Amino acid sequence: MTQTLALLIDAYRLLNARKIFWFTLGLTALVVLSFAFVGINDVGIRIIAWDIEVPGVNLLSGWTEAFFYKTIFLNLGINIWLTWVATILGLITTASIFPEFISAGSIEVVLSKPIGRVRLFITKYITGLLFVTLQVGVFSFGSFMVIGLKSGIWMPGIFVSIPIVVIFFSYLYGICTFFGVLTRSTIAALLLTILCWFGIFVVQASESTLLFFVKYQEQKVQTLEDDLQRSKDRLAEVENPDDKERWNFLHETIEVRTKTLENARESSGVGLAHDILMVAMTVLPKTDMTIGLLERWTIDLSDLPQRNSNRPPPVITDDGEFEANEQEIARSMERELRERSPLWILGTSLLFELFVCGIAGWLFCRRDY
After folding, report:
1. What are the start-end ranges of the H helices in the chain?
2. 2 vs 25: CA distance, rounded Å
3. Taking the mean position of all CA atoms in its chain, how far away is CA 95?
């Protein structure tokens, strides 16, 4: 235990000695302080003393101060700063931990002491997460205090971001550790990790795009089914069977709409592609969905300002063309994303991390130094 604690303290000292650690911490403080200069009123968003009119974003349109600060905390603080900028800076800072440690003349000093390689690997891995833990901790506490003191609204749910962002970073850090042990190169480990991150992002973005088309197809099928049922109801209401013209017209209409509905149901290419991507996402770490849990756990759908849609419901035109209600599709996608199990999101992602770290640990323990 003493040896493990000594390694943790040594890792903190190494981080403390790096200028980029304090540079990132300073930028984090600036982002936190920016919350003190932003507010919302009846006109729109207020920045220091200037009011900026933003359509639909003001206290008169259903927004509340609590919802506004939750939104900027998630969108500016989490989705932009911690998820992208601070994560990249964190990877730059921590990417060298294993390559430098296993370089000639460094690891021999530690291995000469009675400490197992497995424990050494796990301890060094945990110390690499100290960077993002400290950054997120400072950011969350600072945001909690600044928003609370400025607006009088205290949001303890902000602190949920600490474990979520650390878990998110650990996915990428696990990949970085694997490449660091494999290549012994900081630059190679960093570049390959960013490349993998981009690949994961492409898969998740593609799945989200295909989900839109799946919902589009579902809305189209439902609209065609309703349209067909209305035609059948009209046919049943024909009181005079001798009205051949109307009778034939309705029969022809039902036949055409039945065939159109069958074709729409058989158009399963998008659904199949989406299912394949879902299998890939089950295997890969779900970075975007992990961060998305913050919005799910801090903002209720009932808190959202009411959105008045001027778009008509989905219809089938006289030409047989389908006109979708994209706002309804977006709401349907939002509901489905929120219904995805946190156990699936976090559990499968952590299994991927465990697998990658297991290979990295095996290489670390089997290699001769």
Report:
1. 2-17, 19-34, 65-72, 86-94, 97-101, 107-111, 117-128, 130-151, 161-183, 186-236, 244-266, 269-283, 287-298, 326-339, 342-366
2. 29
3. 23
Ramachandran angles phi, psi of 81, nearest 5°? -70, -65
Tell me the pairing of strands 45-47 and 315-316. unpaired
Sign of CA dihedral 333, 85, 138, 284: positive
Residue 248 in tokens: 């034939």
Reported pTM: 0.82
Cα separation of 26 and 137, whole Å? 13
Q: What is the pLDDT of residues 63-116, one digit of tens each?
A: 888 888 888 888 888 888 888 888 888 888 888 888 887 765 555 555 555 567
Could you tell me how far CA 330 lies from the centroid of its own chain? 16
Tens of pLDDT along 176-212? 999 999 998 999 999 999 999 999 999 999 999 999 8
CB-based contact 349:290 (threshold 8 Å): yes
- The count of C-alpha atoms lying within 13 angstroms of the C-alpha of 189, restricted to the half-sphere facing its C-beta, is 26
* Amino acid found at 103: S
